[in-house]
Structures are given as structure tokens and as C-alpha cells.
Structure prediction request, 140 residues.
Amino acid sequence: MKRMRPRHGSLTGGITDPNMTPLIDVSLVLVVILLVATPLALQSGIAVSHAAGSGRAGADARAARIEISVIDETSLRVNRVPVPRANLGAALTPLIQRSATREVVVRCSDRVTHGVFVSVLDEAKACGAAHIAVVEEARP
Prediction:
């Protein structure tokens, strides 16, 4: 039996659909990048500003601010008064409510872990502190 060929070059069943694989690969990579980057963009941070070199209104500002010194993980001082770590909120809230500037300055010892330091900052913010400054502990 003889095979019949079509007269006018017919389609031989080649691939005629567009290749979607590269488009899907690029789309998935973009989705993964957005999933990783979104929490970083929405994460809250601690704003740090550099203190001014001039000393104008320095004495008034020192009198109006509340100072917290973190000594170790269980004790600290609020305006030079020793306070247990568990009682920080009770000691800090009335001071912040009476303060005109609601500014809190935090000093931290080198022995204190980062988690305890950040929890003190968070608690000061939760008690109503408008501005929180972090200063270096005075060296003897």
C-alpha cells in the first residue's frame, strides 16, 4: 500500500501553543520575593535621632524627662529610685502622666541582655512615653 502525501505541505503536528513555563517560573519567583519582603517593609522599628550638640534648654529638658537605668534583668532605677523590674509599669505610668514632655531616657548596663532592654523600651512606650532616648551608660 502506498502512502499518500498531501499536495500542499500540511501541518505535521508540531508545537503551536505558546510556552508558558518561563512566564510561570518568573511569576512564582516574584511571589516568593514579595512574600519575603512584605514583613520587612511593615515591621515597626525604633527611630533613633542624634542628640543636638548645643546645650540650649538642657537644664529644663533634664528636669522634665524621666530617666530609667537598667541595672540587671530584675532591677532598675526610675529617676534614681530603685524599682523591681516587675513593677516598672506601676512606677512609670504616673510619672509619664505628670510629665509635660513625656520624654523617657533609658540607660542600660552591659550585663543586660538585648531582650530585657527591648522589653523595657516597649513597656515605656506602652505606659505613654512620647519620646524615648537611649543614652550610653556613664563610665566610672
Notes: The chain has four helices and five strands. Helices lie at 21-42, 58-64, 88-98, 114-126. Residues 62-135 form a domain with the Nucleotidyltransferase; domain 5 fold (CATH 3.30.420.270).
